[in-house]
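Example 9 (inverse folding). The structure is encoded as follows.
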């Protein structure tokens, strides 16, 4: 699968946020601030999962070429991925 720049940029942003949280912890910042940032990271990861699953689903549906059984299988796999990520 080809990952688009949206997903890659989201992950780079999350990487920066995670580094920031590590720095906050090393500096002994208040736990409320750390938890707030960790919650933002979790939300960012969830949104990134959605972007990746959606892109993959669109790609896979195009490849089913009208085969309803195959398309239902692909959709179910996408649903399973989203559920598993929670």
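The amino acid assigned to each position is listed next.
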């Amino acid at each position: 699968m080809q990952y688009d720049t949206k997903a890659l940029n989201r992950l780079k942003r999350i990487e920066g946020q995670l580094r920031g949280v590590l720095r906050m912890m090393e500096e002994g910042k208040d736990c409320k601030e750390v938890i707030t940032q960790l919650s933002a990271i979790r939300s960012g990861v969830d949104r990134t999962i959605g972007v990746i699953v959606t892109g993959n689903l669109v790609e896979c549906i195009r490849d089913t070429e009208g085969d309803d059984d195959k398309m239902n299988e692909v959709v179910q796999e996408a649903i399973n991925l989203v559920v598993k990520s929670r």
